[in-house]
Design a protein that fits this description.
40% of the residues lie in helices and 17% in strands. It is built from eleven helices and twelve strands. The longest helix has 19 residues. The chain is globular.
Length: 282
């Protein structure tokens, strides 16, 4: 297929790009670094020259926190919505949107609400659409995994509250496998899928697993009260955008979903973190 991939220079987009190329697809990669800035792509007409002779479009652009000149409203909502409407006009058949877990009726942060707004626009088109809502995605190049690996390697692991927040990370290879399946003509379209690992686990258990995978003994932990973490996040977010208070609230609420629909979609269970972070030979 001939495919336009936005966000192709990012962590997820990069893995999707490799997967598409390995599967023999012809990919037009696009991102800000490659000359297409979403801030200037908010009208349907802006997209039309990019959509000639395409079979599918995959949108993997997004930000974890706003900065000067990078707003959720434009990057997550207005530009993708314009892209989806333009796809309808240009006769592109399949469109895959990389959204996020929590972009649903219970969305409570601007990150989630703007994702949902674009998802709703896509769902309102006549396109063959897929809305994929990943939980935390890990694998080579993941900045969130790098942060957790750093925390896990400390002799005393600082925890958000008691560290029992439920997470259900999905390995990036399972995300790519899902995208490839969405592109198969026999896969029925117009689906919203939550992309999660095989089962939930507590954040502290994931950190200790990461540690064990590096051959280290379990570490002592230092629970930091949630209100204190939130207060310090107003400063630390400038160093580490993932530590924005809203992202901590998302983490604290739990980032999990039923893995059943994804299991049925893939014809197998997604990877469990225990499979990935178990030391070789055990
Ligand atoms: N990683 C996760 O755990 C996770 C979980 C759930 C959902 N998601 C969603 O998945 C998507 C990709 O995430 P990621 O982790 O791959 O993020 P990432 O590594 O930060 O990549 C973001 C991509 O967006 C592009 N981009 C940023 N601003 C842009 C702009 N103004 N115009 C055009 N392109 C722009 C970047 O291109 P340049 O570098 O060229 O600017 C890059 O290719 C996002 O929508 C995110 O919300 C991610």
């Amino acid at each position: 297929m001939r495919i336009l991939l936005t966000g192709a220079t990012g962590f997820i987009g990069g893995h999707i790009l490799t997967g598409l190329q390995q599967a023999g697809h012809e990919v037009r990669a696009c991102s800000r670094r490659l000359g297409v800035d979403f801030n200037r792509m908010v009208n349907d007409d802006d997209w039309m020259p990019h959509l000639e002779n395409l079979d599918a479009v995959i949108n993997a652009v997004g930000i974890i926190a706003e900065t000067r000149g990078q707003s959720f409203e434009i990057l997550h909502h207005q530009a993708p919505a314009a892209l989806f409407r333009a796809c309808e006009r240009a006769g592109v058949r399949r469109v895959i949107q990389i959204s996020a877990l929590g972009a649903d009726d219970r969305a409570f942060t601007p990150y989630q609400r703007t994702k949902k707004a674009a998802d709703d626009t896509l769902r309102g088109t006549s396109l063959e659409w897929f809305v994929l809502r990943p939980s935390l995605v890990y694998g080579k190049g993941s900045s969130s995994e790098a942060l957790f690996q750093f925390m896990a390697a400390l002799p005393l692991i600082p925890l958000v509250g008691n560290g029992r927040q439920q997470v259900q990370p999905i390995h990036v290879s399972d995300l790519v496998a899902t995208v490839l399946r969405c592109l198969q003509p026999e896969t029925p379209a117009r689906q919203t899928l939550d992309l999660v690992g095989a089962q939930p686990l507590a954040l502290v258990d994931w950190l200790q697993l990461m540690r064990r995978a590096k051959g280290k003994r379990p570490a002592l932990t230092l629970p930091i009260p949630f209100p204190l973490i939130l207060a310090s996040a107003h400063l630390s977010r400038f160093l580490i955008p993932m530590l924005h208070p809203d992202n901590l609230r998302i983490l604290d609420r739990g980032n999990i979903a039923d893995a059943g629909p994804l299991t049925r979609f893939l014809g197998r269970a997604p990877l469990a973190v225990e499979e990935v972070f178990t030391p070789k030979g055990r």
